[in-house]
Amino acid sequence: MTAAEPTILATCGGLNGGTWTDSVYGPLLHHAIHLARVPGRAPRVTHVNTAGGDQRHVEGAELEAARAAGVEATHLRFFPRRNIEHLREHLLRQDVIWVSGGSVVNLLAVWRAHGLDDLLAEAWREGVVLAGGSAGALCWHEGGTTASFGPGISAVADGLGFVPGSLAVHYDSDPARRPAHQRAVAEGVLPDGYALDEGVGLVYRGTRLDDVVAERPGVSAWRVVRSGDGVTETCIVPRVLESDAEPA
After folding, report:
1. Coil, strand or helix: which one is 151?
2. Could you confirm whether 141 is annotated as catalytic?
3. From 134, 148, 166, 220, active-site residue
4. Is 57 one of the catalytic residues?
5. Total-model pTM
């Protein structure tokens, strides 16, 4: 079984720090699996860390966290070369494709060079849940703001565009993000969209926003809309997910 309709979960979250293991699946990652409606077997999750350069220690943490969560996990890497031969078949067998953070600019370039953008669009239409945090959330939108080019925050307007509008991440934790994103929307460089505090996620069904969720209380999503020479921000209070206990 797959998601009832094309589904994307765009977040500022994913793996959390563990106690018995270095990392654990956080509530947002568990929610992506819930959205996939997996029937009576171990969920299949492919982790993609292109934005972080496919570092093996990150891969190891993701796969260890998956084992602790009872997940059948794989890792798709492109550096130094692609590690999965029959990529289309592999992706269409998954329940969730989880994309972690880093450089969204590098992610988009590598994915397009390998045709992964088209394969992900097909998987999404077939009900595989596409999800991720930070760069793994920005990529599904028309564009967003990113630190991919250096210490400043820049606008990137060539996202995959599976869902409409722009996205900003780390809205409450990086003081440079909010003014840079507001400026990009106010100037028309980016379209209207949303922004996420840490631990918040947007659930899209098809291309419509269906739910706003968070792994803890006290954080928000924001609707950011161009208004005159500036923007109007509207706070969206998310629904708090139940935390999953870490395995003993």
Report:
1. coil
2. no
3. 134
4. no
5. 0.95
